[in-house]
Amino acid sequence: MKTANFGVIGISGRGSGMMRELMAVPGVNVVAVCDKYQDRAENGVKIVKEVQGTDAAMYLDYKELLKRDDISAILCCTTWITHCRIAIDSMRAGKHVAIEVGGAASVDECWQMVHTSEKTGKFCMLLENCCYDRNEMAIYNMNSLGMFGEITHLEGGYRHDLREEICLGRENRHGRLVNFMRRNGELYPTHELGPLSKLININRGNRFLTLCSMASKSRGLNVWMKKNKGEDYDIADFPFNEGDVVTTMIKCANGETILLTHDCSTPRPYSRNYNVQGTKGIYNETDDERAGKIYFDDFEREDWKPFKEFRDKYEHPLWKLYSEEGIHAGGHGGMDYLVLSAFAEAAINDVKPPIDVYDTAAWMSITCLSEQSAAMGGMPVPVPDFTNGMWIEREPYRRGKFCLDEVCRDCFENIDGEEK
Amino acid sequence: MKTANFGVIGISGRGSGMMRELMAVPGVNVVAVCDKYQDRAENGVKIVKEVQGTDAAMYLDYKELLKRDDISAILCCTTWITHCRIAIDSMRAGKHVAIEVGGAASVDECWQMVHTSEKTGKFCMLLENCCYDRNEMAIYNMNSLGMFGEITHLEGGYRHDLREEICLGRENRHGRLVNFMRRNGELYPTHELGPLSKLININRGNRFLTLCSMASKSRGLNVWMKKNKGEDYDIADFPFNEGDVVTTMIKCANGETILLTHDCSTPRPYSRNYNVQGTKGIYNETDDERAGKIYFDDFEREDWKPFKEFRDKYEHPLWKLYSEEGIHAGGHGGMDYLVLSAFAEAAINDVKPPIDVYDTAAWMSITCLSEQSAAMGGMPVPVPDFTNGMWIEREPYRRGKFCLDEVCRDCFENIDGEEK
Questions:
Q1: What's residue A405's pLDDT?
Q2: Which CATH superfamily is domain B130-317+357-409 in?
Q3: Chain B partners of A288 at a C-beta cutoff of 8 Å?
């Protein structure tokens, strides 16, 4: 079995969880860990020892780690605003890189990622775990069978009550607090935009053209702090820039519209607010624990059916395979393990990943573009074509079982998905 | 009991239904009916005879009907694009007027309605029945009790699979077909925008500032016709201008955002897609037969509860009253009767209605403004202030039981709504 050495940068709660998942993938050998906080870096060494039984080198400065020539790939789980620069530095140091999700601070750093990847031949993969979630993958499968007809409109959201995590950012060392203080836009677009983009072949025959964003007033965080930390809490009256709900409309080259909602400072149950509309049917994620509902034109009654029975019937081959093999029950119900497996397999075999630098740049750029648009009252802003025209003729990825562009039935054995 | 004479213009299926409801309101006397189609006008005379036992005068030209000096008010249920001009002509002829819902063709005709109403002292009321629907009114009541905290974001949609009605427009004489052929925008905004506007005091301390609209490609109608009328149907390949899904974002003076979705040519169950978000709670209309779900910050578990139990507890006083009196079981579960009662009461007593010409103009203008924005790629366009600054200090309506601006508890007897 092929193996490769990995370095991990950013050993927060999330980072250490992701590192554990990564080490569970066959062929992965973590040899170095890094965090700017000493306690987190030490914890990284401890976890590697516990899982692999080996002594990982410890760094507080990621640039020192990148100097090593025995590392093939980097997993980066730092704070949002540092992902792009660490990705760029990693590729410049001759390493493939995967970064945790988040949005870009500027269009320039997206271009830098693209240029660096093109120049070095190293890949940069956004670890968009939701691309590998079970419902989303069953939807790819059903779409590849033509069940929705032609897709015309998509919706998704990150509707997650994170008031406590945001407000206590100085205690939990999470970057959300400062981002909500200073920025106003679609700060976290990729959980929904990743899977939606794969459904309509963004960067492979389609692309984002323009977007418009609008932000509501900001009230939720102040109300939460006054209620939970007291009227005298030092930042209870801080004038947050981030609106409680930020709405973004994206227009695509092939005429589809995508609606995104960022909604993290309102009391509410979790939802990714998924909505897929086509000429033959519609899928809608209801808000209760990731359940969904579905309707097709040929139903006898004009009423939704629970998605569950369709997911069972049209389970994506990758999920079937993993269920049969006994999937590693990792974070977020398995999707973390799958996206890390996709990354590790590409890094170990030195091949292109299913989410490449063009996807990473396009998806992440939505954040800074939405800030621009919202600041200009919803003015449409162009989304750059990070492929410089290659999107027009780029083929689907079709490289093994982690492919997201099409359901590559040839890559799987014993698949008996019913055709419709 | 005071009575007044009414004329009815537009006796389509909808028009004749509305006329029957209107005649059920105490004090209403329909003396004249008009339709440009002879068969419909004759049907109007027949219905009046059947319900009132009187002989209504029949007209094919509404301008002839407007010459009569024994008519106090006009009910207009014609096709979308004629509502404004008939409203203007009615007020010029010295009659109050109520018009069925729809959007405006231009900002100019909205201003004409406003100027004519101000000059003549006659009112123009949009018959937005959804303002009087049971769930919406319970939400007003809960909001007036402060249960949502400060509202930050609202959503609504007209998500109604009307493919058959649209495509067969030449047979059913409905205006939708030609509008979908030629226009591209939020063609039907008021079912959701009316109630949402009343929640956040539009034109009375708040107003719409700007909007951005974006339309998806148009595919649904062609697919429907090919499937149901055959590939050779004469308009099966007609290049419809109206996108299958049109999304509109509105920014309000007090910082709220409103998201509207027009979605009538996709296979789907019905939804008005209501979403009310505030600092303390959230209401969400699920898609199943107008049920809703609700969540408040003080719930023990982060999970939705069915709205039904809250609606029972916080039933709006008007609905309570009508339930006790034995509500006239009219169209759309009672809301048609309520909105017509509000109109008739204002006309009979010659007082201002709860939905006035400023509301009518502001809500209807969203249609032509969204066409402008969509045509310019989502460019923000200003929404005119049809009150010319009066919105800043206008008080809530507070005039009897049909009030929508505040829950006027003084106007109702025997109200025991629990305060929170």
A1: 84
A2: Dihydrodipicolinate Reductase; domain 2 (3.30.360.10)
A3: 303-304
pTM of the model: 0.96
Residues of B in contact with A162 (CB under 8 A): none
Please check the confidence at residue B367 and state whether its pLDDT lies above 70: yes
Cβ atoms of A232 and A258 within 8 Å: the answer is no
What are the pLDDT digits (tens) for B191-238? 999 999 999 999 999 999 999 999 999 999 999 999 999 999 999 999
Which chain A residues in 26-85 lie under 8 Å from chain B, judged by CB atoms? none
CB proximity B10 to A under 8 Å: no
Does residue B105 register a pLDDT over 50? yes
Give the span between the Cα atoms of B94 and B69, in whole angstroms.
8
Residue type, B129: N
Q: Does A287 touch chain B (CB under 8 A)?
A: yes
Q: Is A219 within 8 Å of chain B by CB?
A: yes
State whether residue B157 sits within 8 Å of chain A by CB: no
Q: Which two tokens stand for residue A160?
A: 């997650």
- The third-level CATH classification (topology) of the domain covering A4-128 is Rossmann fold (3.40.50)
List B212's β-bridge partners, or say none: B249
- Cβ atoms of A216 and A246 within 8 Å: the answer is yes
Q: Which amino acid is at B18?
A: M
d(CA B360, CA B90): 15
- Name the pairing type of β-strands A151-159 and A275-278: antiparallel
Q: What is the pLDDT of residues B61-87, one digit of tens each?
A: 999 999 999 999 999 999 999 999 999
What is the crossing angle of helices A107-120 and A83-92, to 10°? 20
What is the spatial distance between Cα A305 and Cα B235, in angstroms, rounded to a whole number? 33
ipTM: 0.95
Question: What are the residues whose beta carbons fall under 8 Å from the beta carbon of B312, sequence distance 6 or more?
Answer: none
* A242 and chain B in contact, CB less than 8 A: no
For chain A, which residues make up each domain, given as ranges? Answer: 4-128, 130-317+357-409
| Domains A4-128 and A130-317+357-409 agree in fold | no
Residues 6+ apart with CB under 8 A from A119: none
- Residue entry with tokens 């919202």: A374
Query: Could you give phi then psi for residue A97, rounded to 5 degrees?
Result: -145, 145
| Lateral strand order in the sheet of A4-9 | A57-59, A28-34, A4-9, A73-76, A96-99, A124-126
Per-residue buried b or exposed e for B314-343, using 16+ beta carbons within 10 Å of the residue's own CB:
bbbbbbbbbeeeeeeebeeebbbbbbbbbb
Hey, are the CB atoms on A277 and B249 less than 8 Å from each other?
no
| CB distance A307 to A130 below 8 Å | no
Question: Are the C-beta atoms of A130 and A157 separated by less than 8 Å?
Answer: no
pLDDT given for residue A167 in this prediction: 97
Is A70 in contact with A30 (CB distance < 8 Å)? Answer: no
A71 vs A95: CA distance, rounded Å: 7
- Cβ-contact A235, A161 below 8 angstroms: no
Q: Which of B29, B11, B9 is nearest to B344 (CA)?
A: B29
* Angstrom distance (rounded) from CA B223 to CA B236: 8
